[in-house]
Each structure stands twice: as structure tokens, then as C-alpha cells.
């Protein structure tokens, strides 16, 4: 039997890229001779991260539609036509046995053209409120893997399979990597480590919060591992090298970062929430209020309501020092949050998704 050709499209943010890579890695374990090709959006982070993971990627000239009138909006029809044409060309040359979409601008043209050629398609939706691309693709998709209940209002109910979100498999063993993680980041093993995550691009409010509390963290005798994001690194790199502070544009070894941390401050994107449930460390979620349907707040609230994390809204950030110091000094609270968030983990998500992919490949 000839090796399978697997076409995967997803990107724009780490929340779309890492699920795509996790799925590819699991397929590769099962089918070592399979051929993989990723399709992303030119100038987006997938064009860097996917090759770093060892996979080939081709880029489409595509972007989203802005809410206000911009030059990009005027060029969108031309980008869409160009991307559909190129996606069609990629599919004709690669001849995929299946096309998988994990969200992001490039998924639309890629899976539209795959559907037109009767290639089986599977989409993986990370959020409780799907984006426009996946809602559109769901009409023709063969399977839709989701992480939340009650998505029948957006997708055809007979296609939905609740699997959870794929996570990097190296996170499943982080509890054996604590010392290795601290050594990797040259951290003091006698001090508590605070890991700050605002997403791959960064989060302005979280960065401002950390900046304004650097003296506070010093007084608490904790060390800060701060991923400020690509958009903000030039602004905050001046703090790298301060006593007990490390500033990173991006952390490539997230398994070591999670393993080394004692408390985590994070946005509440779907992929981050899924990872943090598996990591099982005490978390303070500061959700972005600037996303569709405020789904980050809903994600964080679903964990906080089960006593698995602390939810701190951006409108409440003036209370952060009290919230943080109380958590830092309460070992019982930390242990309770850890145990409760681990109860919500779906560590078999990647396996479940690839099981569905296998069913489509074998049809």
C-alpha cells in the first residue's frame, strides 16, 4: 500500500499551530512512512514554527477581514482568489488522502478546494465559540472534533465528536523534568518560579501588569520567567537580566518552562487551557476580553467554577498583588488548585482525533 499523503492547514497563532503539529506527530508515530505537507498564511508564525518541527509548509497570500475599513479589507477578494488558486495547485501536486484543518486563515481556501475534489476533510475546533472559517467549513467536513459541549448550534450535530484539544505530548511527562527545566533556564532551585504567558504574540495588559509589579515580585522573593510575546519584546527586553527576571520573546521548550514553574499567570485561550489542565500547576487566568463572544472568560470561568484556577478579569487587575500574595503563601490552596485542574484534563485528545482520521483514511 502506498504511503498516505496528509495535508494539514492551521496557523496564525500558537493555538492553531500546536494542535496541528500534535496531530501530525501522532499520525507519524502510527504511519512512519506517511508524507506530510502543511499549508499556512504567508508572513504568519506557522511559516517559522512548522519547519522548526521538521515539516514542510507552503504559504498562501491570505488574511482575515478587519472590523473597520482598511486597505487589507479592500485586497481581501484578491487574496482569496489567489489562495484558492494556489491551494488547488498544491492539492493537485500533493494528492492528499485527507485534509485536516485546525483553524486560521489558510484553512479556509485549503479545505474548500479539498472538499471540491472529494478529499475527506476533518476540522478541529479548539474554542467554545468557533470562528467564521470553521463554521463555513463544517457544512462539507466529514468530521468535526471539538473540545466543548453544546456546539450543535454552530455545527451539524451528526459530525461532531468531543475529543478535547490536542496538546504537545512532551507535556505529559513534565513532572519528571522539574530539575531539568530549572537547569535549562538557569533558575535558582531554592526560589519559587512564576511563569507568565500572554500567548505567542503577547498580551499588553499582562505585560503591563508584570512591569508594574517587578518590585513586588522581588519583595516576594520569587523569580519570573516572562514570555512577553513577539509584538512586545522590543518594549520589555530591557528588563531581561534584572535580578530574578527573565524576558523571552517566545519559549520554545514549553515543557521545561511548565516543569520549572510553581505558579502560572496566563491568558485563557482554548489551547492554553487544555495544556494547563494537563500541566496541573496553580494558575491565575487573566482572559482577554477582546475576543469573539468573550470566549476566553468563559474558558477560564469553566475552570474557576470547579475550583481549578483563579479567574482575574482585566478590570480587576488592581487586586493582583493581594490575590497573588495570598496564593503564594497558601500551600493548601496551591495543592487544591493543582488537583482540581488536573481532574479536568483530557490527555487522550490527540489519540482520539487521530483515531477519527484513521477511520476516514480507511474508508
Task: Kindly list the characteristics that best describe this protein.
363 residues; alpha/beta; six-stranded parallel β-sheet; 13 strands
- Number of helical regions: 15
| Radius of gyration over all CA atoms, rounded | 21 Å
Structural class: alpha/beta
Question: Quick one: how many beta strands?
Answer: 13
Characterize the biggest β-sheet: 7 strands, parallel
Brief rundown of the structure:
The chain has 363 residues and is an alpha/beta fold.
Describe this entry's structure for a reader:
The protein has 363 residues and is α/β, with parallel strands linked by helices. Helices cover 42% and strands 16% of the residues. It has helices spanning 14-30, 46-52, 71-94, 107-116, 132-137, 178-184, 204-212, 214-219, 233-236, 254-260, 270-279, 295-304, 320-329, 331-342, 349-362; strands spanning 5-9, 35-41, 57-60, 98-101, 121-125, 143-146, 160-162, 192-197, 222-227, 245-248, 263-266, 283-285, 310-311. Strands 3-2-1-4-5-6-7 form a seven-stranded parallel β-sheet, with helices on both faces. The longest helix is centred in the N-terminal third of the chain and has 24 residues, at 71-94. The model has no long low-confidence stretch (mean pLDDT 92).
Which helices and strands, and how do they pair?
Elements: E1 5-9, H1 14-30, E2 35-41, H2 46-52, E3 57-60, H3 71-94, E4 98-101, H4 107-116, E5 121-125, H5 132-137, E6 143-146, E7 160-162, H6 178-184, E8 192-197, H7 204-212, H8 214-219, E9 222-227, H9 233-236, E10 245-248, H10 254-260, E11 263-266, H11 270-279, E12 283-285, H12 295-304, E13 310-311, H13 320-329, H14 331-342, H15 349-362
Parallel strand pairs: 1-2, 1-4, 2-3, 4-5, 5-6, 6-7, 8-9, 8-11, 9-10, 11-12, 12-13
